[in-house]
Amino acid sequence: SQTDIQASLSLTQDTLSRRLDEMKMLSRIGRVISSLSDLNTILVRIAEAGTYLTRADESAVHLLDGQQSFLWTQQSSGSAQAVVVMQPSSDPVVAAVLQSGKPHLGVDAAGRPALAVPVVTGGIAVGAVINYKAASKPTFEESDQAVLVSLSDFAAIAIDKVKAIDSVRAEIDVALDVGRKVLAHAETLYDPDDGI
User: Fold this and answer.
1) Are 114 and 128 in contact (CB under 8 A)?
2) Which among 50, 83, 93, 175 has most CB atoms closer than 10 A?
């Protein structure tokens, strides 16, 4: 019937409008994140965007460190800003995503809708972005997963960038240290009376 067609068309227009808004937001987020060089700020922005774009109640970014524990950032929809926490995480959904390297779209052990995707750099899962909703809310959709995968990709690119910047800074520090030592040694060899 005509009413059904109009309702379907309206729903399709709403869906397309929402997807366009998400694409615009992801583009803005990508520009912001690519301009940052502080890992904590990057993680905060990823968590905030995850909460907003997927209509989650809570979003977190978990990163493996050298000791297999986590640095994680958490954003709750009711809080003003994400919080960076440096402590081990025991989230079983995150552990499963890190182990499998594949997204999780379903519920957690407590029955809350959960969506988690790996953060992959160099073919290795180095972390995960996870979002939760209250158990009473509808589950995440595949479109939410696509958005979170994009945010995860931004996180991976940013992590690689921060590592590269840190590596260059370390090399500069070493070169400056060597230069200072050479200069100090040269000053001990120079005798102003002999010109040698």
Assistant:
1) no
2) 50
